[in-house]
Predict the structure.
Amino acid sequence: MRGLRRPGSATPSLPGRQLGPGGRPGVDASNPEQLKSQTPPPEVRRFADLAQASHQAARYIVATAQACAAAGRPFTLALAGGATPQTLYRLLAAPSFAEQLPKANTHLFWGDERCVPPQHPASNFGMSQALLLDPLGLPAAQIHRMPGETRPPAEAAHRYEQHLRQFFKAHARPARFPRFDLILLGLGVDGHTASLLPGSLALAEKEHWVVAVDGAGATPPLARLTLTLPVLNQADNVVFLVAGQAKARLVQAIIADHAAAARQYPAALVRPTGRLLYLVGEIT
């Protein structure tokens, strides 16, 4: 029983305007045509602004967590970094959502991290801690941060991958790649997602769950850790939270011509086993 896709569980209603026409285990994430031929179509919902899109994302996350709790198993959520999800994290920490979240079975992970200490202003964990983790008061054992301060970055990636392997094996979800209940992703204007950057060798990774990237083309230009495409594509639910008209146009380009977009934009290579949902706030 997986995420919101289990028989008999309710899928949250999705207000907003649908743009139109999403991955399976064993699909070659570096082959756009194979991805397209073996995956369900993505769903796209457009909202007037980021606040409305974030509200829908909060509803979706809470509903997924509740479904996992009803099934008697942990809810595994990988968080995104950057500015876009900050409104969402504030919402999830507010009583109206926090009181509905089954905290006892919620485990938080990260899709990517800058290679800095957790107290650094650029830390994705640090941002999440201030806006979400501290207000929620989750036990430390349920917070699984990427060790951005560990050197070299390749060792940090190895340690996080080993941690993921131990966690998912212990919770009876062993597989070649971990199956997260929900992965939250952002979208860069260059088409990157997590820390999977255009032209990066990490896009061709087919074995490792976590890798280090140099981040030279990113903002800020710091070395980073990131989950790999096979991990993203194994998830039960992937939610892109997107803000602004420029990124909305990028989503439209990915939907309109996936094969062409996949040659240019790493985000287009995310075609998960489960549900792929774009929540687009057209005005930031």
